[in-house]
Amino acid sequence: ARNVLGVWMGTGIGGGLILDGLPFTGAHGASGEIGHVIIREAGALCRCGRRGCVEAYAGRRSMEAAVSIMVAAGRRTVLYEIRDAQGKKALMSKVWARALAEGDPLAGELVDTAVGAVGVSSVINLLDVERVVVGGGLAEKLGQHLADRIAAGAQPWMLQPHPDLSFVAAALGDDSGVVGAASLARNLVITG
Q1: For 75, which DSSP code?
Q2: pLDDT at 191 over 90
Q3: What is the pTM of this model?
């Protein structure tokens, strides 16, 4: 694919673009900050200090804060039991994956909120990409299931049908950053 949106879902939310086969970095090298697109005016506080960012709803750290609030309000979840059984201090991506596999309603609700917040349909409508690659810690643990959920969440918001659009889980896992940097460096050396 020559036009690709990358969305990285983990502790925070990141992104990247390949347009016409080349990495798109923008005028100041800062394109792809999908995590700090405002989706709700006066919404939840983000770690960046602004309100209503995608990351305030879809980042794993924000999801963990939401669990704490919901449990304090009386909601039940197996997330903490799984975390404790795995000897973790935080709700790591594999804790979320296990809770979803066990059918935990709260985990499912928060992942659905995250999927809705990511809002890839807006980028698809704007740039007409042919592939969306979903990576990061959550994607590494949830795999194609997460990519499929994002695809299903995007469909109602796309302005026109995109029969050749594919949503895929990143195949390189933790190595994706290293491989991407090496590929970019190689391309810069070759093309000057």
Answers
A1: -
A2: no
A3: 0.88
**Superfamily covering domain 4-191:** ATPase, nucleotide binding domain (3.30.420.40)
Domain ranges of the chain: 4-191
Beta strands in the chain (DSSP E): 4-9, 13-19, 22-24, 131-135, 166-169
Copy the structure tokens of residue 90. Answer: 């935080």
pLDDT computed for residue 119 by the predictor: 82
- Tokens of residue 113, six digits: 């909120």
Residue with tokens 């918001």: 157
**Mean pLDDT confidence for 86-101:** 95
Report how far residue 12's alpha carbon sits from residue 18's, in angstroms, rounded to the nearest whole number: 21
Q: How many C-beta atoms lie closer than 10 Å to residue 153's C-beta?
A: 19
The residue type found at 9 is M
Spatial neighbors of 65 by CB under 8 A, at least 6 apart, are: none
